[in-house]
Amino acid sequence: MATIDQRIEELIGSDYDSIPTNSHNDLINSAVNEIADMLPSELLLKYVQYKTDISTSGGMDNIEEKKVLLVTREVADAGTEVRECTPVPYFEFLRAQDATSIYTATVESPVYTYDVNAATDPKLKIFPVPTLAQKGTIWHFNYPAGDTGTGSTVLGLPNSCIQAVVLKACINLLQAYISDFVQDEEDNEMQTMLSAQMQSLQAQFQQEMARFIEQDATPRGE
């Protein structure tokens, strides 16, 4: 199977990374990130590769660069019954811990939030606090940071989305090309051709993504 780099090369040429020399990997990863954010969590859950269990009030560390897909908490010590946790703002999370409030969260209606009080160590926290016998679980998509282009797939994305990744990456790279032409005042005809190609790829990308997303957010094309 062709790599993402090879598929990009087939669309926009073998020197696609010669202008954004220092950023072409970032531009490809940016395409992956955008597509992951556009896809419904229900679809990504079918291909989820990462989950983190928590069993203390400390919560889940290192939540940066992750798209949280689902948070659950076990109801009883047996661990066979779980409830989906509802995301709430931080101050509502605090209110959910007040036993005298009508908004108190229970094991039947757990909640979660992002605790950013410690600016350098934000955490995802669940209430009621999970325990060793009643753990909480977070399923998440991890945004890539390495050289994604050398692979033919993206961990956590369906293979049927790779064409969309290729198209969006091409658009990002062509934008870098065009920016270089504008700044250096080079061939206007070449700039026009690049702009036309980018617009064509943009139309193809939108059509490709329409297979997976419609206004009702129902997963498609699988």
What does this structure look like?
With 222 residues, the chain is an alpha+beta fold. It is 36% helix and 16% strand. It is built from 6 helices and 7 strands; from the N terminus they run αααββββαβββαα. The chain has helices at residues 4-12, 24-38, 41-45, 90-95, 162-184, 188-210, and strands at residues 50-54, 66-74, 82-84, 86-87, 111-115, 123-127, 136-142. The strands form 2 sheets. The protein has a 4-stranded antiparallel sheet. Strands 4-5-6 form a 3-stranded mixed sheet, with no helix packed on it. Helix 1 (4-12) crosses helix 5 (162-184) and helix 5 (162-184) runs antiparallel to helix 6 (188-210). The chain is elongated, with a radius of gyration of 22 Å. The two termini are 20 Å apart. The relative contact order is 0.20. Mean pLDDT is 87; it is low at 217-222.
Give structural attributes.
222 residues; alpha+beta; 36% helix
Mean pLDDT: 87
Q: Helical element count?
A: 6
- Summarize the amount of helix as a percent range: 25-40%
Order of helices and strands: HHHEEEEHEEEHH
Tell me the number of strands: 7
Spatial strand order of the main sheet = 1-7-2-3
* Class inferred from helices and paired strands: alpha+beta
Radius of gyration: 22 Å
Brief description of this entry?
The protein is an alpha+beta fold. The chain has helices spanning 4-12, 24-38, 41-45, 90-95, 162-184, 188-210; strands spanning 50-54, 66-74, 82-84, 86-87, 111-115, 123-127, 136-142.
